C-alpha cells in the first residue's frame, strides 16, 4: 500500500464513538460500571497469537455460484483471537502486550495503530517486510449465518529463527 494511503487506512479502521474492535455486553450487564474495586496495581498480560483485520459484510443472502450482489453494510475492524482477547483485557484495566507477526505493509501499519488506540502494547510485534498482513473476509446473511475466508500473512513462521524487536527475548 502506498504511503499516501496509510492515513486513509487509519480512518477506515477507526470506529464510531472511539470504538475500534467490536464490543459486546452480556445481556443484563448494563449499568454495572463502577461496581468493582479498582485493581491495586496494573497487572501485565502477554498474549501470543493471531492479529489481523476483519472485513465484515452483511448480505441479504449468500450469492449463488458466479452471482454478484451488493452488501447491505461493510465494517472494517481489528480481528484475531489474541488481539481481541488482549483488547478486552485492556478494557478491564490490565496492561496487555501482544506477540504476533504481521506484514510490513500499510495494513500492518493500521493494525499497529489500532492496537495502540485499544491500549495493547505492540512493541513485541514482528513485521515481515515484503509480506502482506493477515485479514479475513466475513460474510453474514440476514439470518445471521457467517461464512469466512481467511487470508494468512506470508513470510517465515513466528518462531525462534525470526529476528526479534528490541526488548523481546530471543528463544
Automatic annotation (TrEMBL):
Domain Carbohydrate kinase PfkB: 48-144
Protein keywords: Kinase, Transferase
Origin superkingdom: Eukaryota
Renumbered residue ranges of the record's region Disordered: 1-20, 151-171
Residue ranges with Low complexity bias: 160-171
Gene Ontology MF term list: kinase activity
Keyword Transferase among UniProt keywords: yes
Protein's name according to its UniProt entry: Carbohydrate kinase PfkB domain-containing protein
Source species of the chain: Raphidocelis subcapitata
Amino acid at each position: 500500500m502506498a504511503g499516501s494511503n496509510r492515513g486513509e487506512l487509519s480512518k477506515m479502521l477507526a470506529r464510531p464513538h472511539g470504538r475500534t474492535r467490536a464490543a459486546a455486553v452480556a445481556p443484563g450487564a448494563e449499568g454495572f460500571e463502577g461496581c468493582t474495586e479498582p485493581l491495586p496495581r496494573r497487572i501485565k498480560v502477554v498474549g501470543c497469537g493471531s492479529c489481523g483485520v476483519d472485513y465484515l459484510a452483511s448480505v441479504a443472502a449468500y450469492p449463488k455460484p458466479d452471482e454478484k450482489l451488493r452488501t447491505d453494510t461493510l465494517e472494517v475492524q481489528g480481528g484475531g483471537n489474541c488481539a481481541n482477547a488482549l483488547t478486552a483485557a485492556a478494557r478491564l484495566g490490565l496492561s496487555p502486550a501482544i506477540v504476533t507477526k504481521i506484514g510490513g505493509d500499510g495494513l500492518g501499519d493500521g493494525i499497529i495503530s489500532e492496537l495502540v488506540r485499544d491500549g495493547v502494547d505492540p512493541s513485541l510485534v514482528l513485521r515481515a517486510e515484503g509480506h502482506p498482513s493477515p485479514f479475513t473476509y466475513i460474510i453474514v446473511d440476514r439470518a445471521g449465518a457467517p461464512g469466512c475466508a481467511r487470508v494468512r500473512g506470508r513470510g517465515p513462521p513466528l518462531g525462534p529463527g525470526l529476528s526479534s524487536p528490541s526488548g523481546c527475548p530471543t528463544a
